[in-house]
Amino acid sequence: MKPEVKLDFQFDSPIEKVWLALTDSNMLAKWVMDNDFKPVVGHHFQFRAKPSKVWDGIVDSEVLAVEEPHRLSYTWVTAGVSTVVTWTLHSSNGATRLHLEHTGFESESLSYNGARLGWVKMADQLEVVLAGL
């Protein structure tokens, strides 16, 4: 069985605000990376970070699904590894449950472990961004 990153988060923000943080390019830049994202199926975009000795800092992506405000999916291609990120949102008494699935890893590699740890760290930043809305 191939490894998958599956994480669940709970935010005390309405689903519309969480959706905005997932789909607005400027907001995404505050908790993920600089980007040229547009929530349009088929849109090709990049996430860009400062390069390091082991990574060029670029994630090539394509939007696969936009089902406002409940589901967003896009490819995540970096360092020769092609994966898929899918966000699922559920409203619950004014709060939002956010489920992440990052799939397509071939093994429990550096890419897989980096994604698993990276998404947890980015979700902490997302909570800060949501608190400021």
Description:
- Residues 13-130 form the Activator of Hsp90 ATPase homologue 1/2-like C-terminal domain.
- InterPro entries: ASHA1/2-like_C, START-like_dom_sf.
- The chain has 133 residues and is α+β, with helices and mostly antiparallel strands.
- It contains three helices and seven strands.
- The protein is globular, with a radius of gyration of 14 Å.
Using the CA coordinates, give the radius of gyration.
Answer: 14 Å
Cα separation of the termini: 40 Å
Strand content: 35-45%
Individual helix count: 3
Q: Can you tell me the residue ranges where pLDDT is under 50 for at least 5 consecutive residues?
A: none
Task: Walk across the major sheet and give the strand order.
Answer: 1-7-6-5-4-3-2
**Number of E strands:** 7
Overall body shape: globular
Average pLDDT level? 96
Structural class: alpha+beta
Describe the biggest sheet? Answer: 7 strands, antiparallel
The helix content is 25-40%
The string of secondary-structure elements, in order, is EHHEEEEEEH
